[in-house]
Amino acid sequence: MWPDPALMRLRALAAGLAFIASAALAAPPETPGYRFQIVTGDTSGTTTRIAEDLYKRLVPTFAAFRTELAQRRRLVLVAIGPDALRQAAARRCDCVVIATFTSSQVWRSIVADLPPARAKGMTAVYAEPAPADQVRLATLLYRRPVRVAAILGPETGFLLPALAGQAEVLQAKRDDDVGDLLARTGRSEVLLALPDSAIYNPENIRNILLSTYRRKQGVIGFSADMVKVGALATTYSDIEDINAQAAEMAARFVATGELPPPQFPHYFRTAINEGVARSLDIAVSEEARRFARARP
């Protein structure tokens, strides 16, 4: 008896469906996409603004590299400020940490207490300007190379390589008097201030600025706020500048699996105290006012 053609077609269809079902069962489940997380230390309006802008910048990067990230199965934590950095550093996870809005001194002090293996998974966009950009600004303001002095405390000695060839460095000891240290910089036309709590703090910053002002010594500050209270000038990075760089670092890690080293801000603009400049007999050029490096 010849087999019924209709029955044969039904059997073939059943066999095909069984094959498809078995293949589906054998296929591994879809691996969820790799995650990033923004860690905050408070709920202030500024922090919220930073986090919202940062989120928008990170989402496209992680979506574009979904497959590679799924394979690596690692988490990227972006910490906003010192408190958030401490929280992120204390987490037990297969993750890397990108710190933002934290000075180099504070970042180093936090990372120094971590086990070496954990410290390797930490990097940062420092909050303060790059010394090389600050010295370049001083040159533009004075329209010539100037003698620049910088004071490093016991906890900021790591900045010495960044200042090599840029400034005459005075390395302070813990019991040194700040007034005496400043007097020793008197031969320099410019004092490059660095965020070192042992040297510059809210209690003495005004006295330091008055002292240098009397000596006709310009201070290149480390924040726009310092310029408002009497420093000559500074380069500074806004929220979007820092966030753009942090997103670039995350993208590099996603693409290569290698975490970029800690770095000073790449993108910045300039703030100048025009009144202080006039008192120092500095005719500010448009080139100095426009000194900047715009983010893409």
What can you tell me about this protein's structure?
This protein is of the alpha/beta class. It has two domains: about 35-125 and about 240-255, Rossmann fold; about 130-235 and about 270-290, 3-Layer(aba) Sandwich (Rossmann fold). The protein is built from 14 helices and ten strands. The chain has helices spanning about 5-25, 45-65, 65-70, 80-90, 105-110, 115-120, 130-140, 160-165, 180-185, 205-215, 225-230, 240-255, 275-280, 285-290, and strands spanning about 35-40, 75-80, 95-100, 120-125, 150, 170, 190, 220, 235, 270. The protein has a four-stranded parallel β-sheet with strand order 1-2-3-4, with helices on both faces. Strands 6-5-7-8 form a four-stranded parallel β-sheet, sandwiched between helices. Strand 2 (about 75-80), helix 4 and strand 3 form a beta-alpha-beta unit. Helix 2 packs parallel to helix 12 (about 240-255) and helix 4 runs parallel beside helix 5 (about 105-110). The longest helix is centred in the first third of the chain and has 22 residues, at about 5-25. The N and C termini lie far apart (about 80 Å).
Task: Give me the secondary-structure topology.
Layout: H1 5-26, E1 36-40, H2 45-64, H3 66-72, E2 75-80, H4 82-90, E3 95-102, H5 104-111, H6 116-119, E4 122-126, H7 131-142, E5 148-152, H8 160-163, E6 168-171, H9 178-183, E7 190-192, H10 205-214, E8 218-220, H11 224-228, E9 233-236, H12 239-256, E10 269-272, H13 274-279, H14 286-289
Parallel strand pairs: 1-2, 2-3, 3-4, 5-6, 5-7, 7-8
Antiparallel strand pairs: 9-10
